[in-house]
Structure formats: C-alpha cells, structure tokens
Amino acid sequence: MHLGGHPKLTVMAIAVAASLLAEVRFGIVRVPVIIWEIAFGILIGPQVLALATPGPSLEFLENSGLVALFFMAGMELDFERVKGRPLSLALRGWIVSLGLGLAAAGLLYWLTIIHAPILAALVLSTTALGTFLPILRDAVRGDSSFAPLVVAAGVAGEFGPVIVVSLVLTPLYGVWQGAVLMFAFVAISVAAALIALGLRPPKVVKLLERSMHSSTQLPVCLSLLLMASFAALSLEFGFEAVLGGFAAGMVVGLASRGEQGIPFRAKMDAICFGFLVPFFFVVSGMSLDVKALVQSPRTMLLVPIFLILLLVVRGAPVFLYRKDLTRGEQWPFVLYSATALPLVVAITHIGVTTGRLRPELAAAMVGTGLLSVLMFPTIAEALLPRETRNA
Question: Closest Cα to residue 223, out of 201, 253, 260?
C-alpha cells in the first residue's frame, strides 16, 4: 500500500501513534513524542520503506508547523519566573556557549570536517526547554532554586539562536542592515506586547472570555492571525518566518498569563502541538538523508563528536553558577542545558532548504539532538541530589 495519495492522513495517523508510544516507559526511559514523529517519518519516507514522499501538498503544513513550533516556544517564555539573577546568568552563559560553539565549529571547519561553521555553532548552542520542561517539573521540587536556573538557561538557549539564525540566514540584506531591521522588528513586537497588556477594556475582556467557549473562538482566531501576520512581516523584513512566529508567541504569552489564560493556552497547545507541529517533525523525518549518514563512516563519526561538543559548549557555563548550584546539582544542570532537538531540526531544516547545509551534515546534527533528548534528561534526573528531587 502506498501512502503518497493520502499524505495528511498519514501524518495524522503517525501523530496519534507517536502520542500513544510517548506514554510508554521503556525501563526508566520515556521517549518524547517528537522523537517518535521523526522516527516514523524516516521509516515511511523515501530513504527506508518509500511509502510516502514529501510533496507540494505537505509544504504549507510543514512550514506552518515550523512557525507554530517557534510560536509555542515564545509562549513558553515566562520572564516573571526567571527574571533577575537566573536570567542574567543564563544570558551570560549563552554568550559563553556561543563563543565556545564558534571556536569548536571553526576548528572542525579548519580540519575540513564540516562546511557550515556558523550553523554548527548555533546547533551546539541550543537548548530544548520545551522538551525537558515536563520532565523537570516532575523531577524537581517546586520551591527549589534549581528549577528557575535551568529554565532560564533553557530560555536563553531558545531565544538566542532564534535571533542569530534570523540575522545569519537573512538572504536580502547585509549584517548591519539586518541588525537595523531586526531592531525595527523588535520595536514592533514590543509595541504589540504593550498594546496586548495595556488595552483591556472590560467589554473587550468579557467578549474574549465569552467567545472562547463558543463556536467563534475569537481569542484563538486572533492569536492565529497574529502568528500569521508576524510571520509574514518577518518575511517582508527579509528574515525567516520563524522569528515572526516566536515574537507572536511572546506577545500572546504575555497577554495570557495567569489563571484566566489557562483554558486559552490549553487550546493553543492543542492546535499547535496536536495538529500543526507534527507535520513539521514527520515531514522533516521523511526528508532526512539517513542513507548519507549511515553510508559514510565520516558522517557517522560526527554524531558522537557533536554530542560531546554539545555537552562541553552548553555545559561549560556551569562555572558561572558556582554560588548558585550545589556540587550535586552541577551535572544535572549541564545535562539539562545540553538537551537539544526541536531547534536543531528547525535550524538544519532552514540550512538545507537555503542551500547552506549539506543533507548528510544535517542528518548528523539531528541524530545528535535525538541522542541528547533520549539520554541527557534521564541521566540528569537520576543524578539529582535528594534535597532537590521532588518527593
């Protein structure tokens, strides 16, 4: 049976199967849903069983899923929780990571092992906050000082690469022009956030609350409109659409904080993670050049190299936390910080589609991200000291 004639049905069936498998524990390991989605995409794709191939009918939904992924990353940013010292340390730590990533990628480029050092450095400086956050919530006590430090590091590991990717991959302008346009885009985003936070007339608030539980779903429609508008504006400015999705997510996230926003945020979770995002990960798996990874010993060797470098690059900033982390919390902090997959897939996807990254190198980077998500959070949870662990 060939599934190519029903690609959307295939992806949604995979999303259901992946969600069910994500609930199953294999020993102490619970495999995240995105790994199952990518794995099934690889399995049915042209590289393995050739049951389905990425085509024009999936392109719109794949791109929408990518924007939705960054939209939800923006919504997850809770500056109230991490502001102050945690965020200050996280930003300094990410700058250290970026510097180390550039140095490591520069060395690999000099040794002619890789050809895209900037993209490699960005991959090595990412953190998958959304992936390990549910694990962290279950593992760490709510009143522990450890959780805000890890969350802040994750915020920096998601926010920093998004900004740099948009500048580095800007196809229309130079760096300085891009920086000016980035400043203008940020100013528009801040203005939108202030409007969302400040303009709350009682009649408007009541309308939004009432319509959220009716067939009109006005708050959801407005949020999706904002996501699409910011993505389009980002493209008009010459950036990647993901920057617009991320900015729209931050605006919507700020406007929906608190208990009143919980039902709305649950609906956005359902739309994005239940429908749009699976298209991105499944189709990314279908497009992944697994044969290039498996057939080349040199490319396969890159996976453990990148995995070690990911630990070093994202873990090295732990020295900034000498006064904030106990000795037993340092290795868990390193491992959580070095957990990276969604942004790795997104960055490599953009790199391949823009011609800046060869498919085999992208496959090695995604393989590194897969291993980090499978290994690092589980090991970190096992290493947590008793006083930090959730009873």
Answer: 253
Q: Where are any strands of DSSP class E within 135-234?
A: none
Sequence-ordered list of residues with C-beta below 8 angstroms from that of 45, at least 6 positions apart, any chain: 51, 52, 53, 54, 285, 286, 287, 288
pLDDT tens digits for 354-387?
788 888 888 889 889 888 887 888 888 888 888 7
d(CA 365, CA 289) in angstroms, rounded, equals 11
The DSSP element (H or E) to which 27 belongs, if any, is none
Residue (of 283, 377, 364) closest to 52 by Cα position: 283
Identify the structural domains of the chain with CATH numbers, from first to last.
7-383 (1.20.1530.20)
Residue 110 has pLDDT above 80, yes or no: yes
∠ at Cα 84 (254, 324), nearest 5°? 130
Distance CA 1, CA 370 (A): 29
CA angle at 147 for the pair 141 and 150, rounded to the nearest 5°: 155
* Most confident among 2-16, 102-116, 291-305 (mean pLDDT): 102-116
| Torsion angle, alpha carbons of 270, 70, 293, 288, to 10 | 60
Measured between alpha carbons, how far is 36 from 30 in angstroms, rounded to an integer?
11
Binned at pLDDT 50, 70 and 90, residue 82 comes out as: low
Using CA atoms, how far residue 193 sits from 161, 196, 218, 242, 308, in Å, is 21, 5, 18, 18, 39
Q: Are 167 and 179 in contact (CB under 8 A)?
A: yes
Cα dihedral value 242, 244, 247, 251, nearest 10: -130
Q: What is the pLDDT of residues 232-279, one digit of tens each?
A: 887 777 677 777 888 888 888 877 777 777 788 888 888 888 888 899
Q: How far is the C-alpha of 363 from the C-alpha of 351, rounded, in Å?
A: 12
Asked if residue 174 has pLDDT above 70, the reply is no
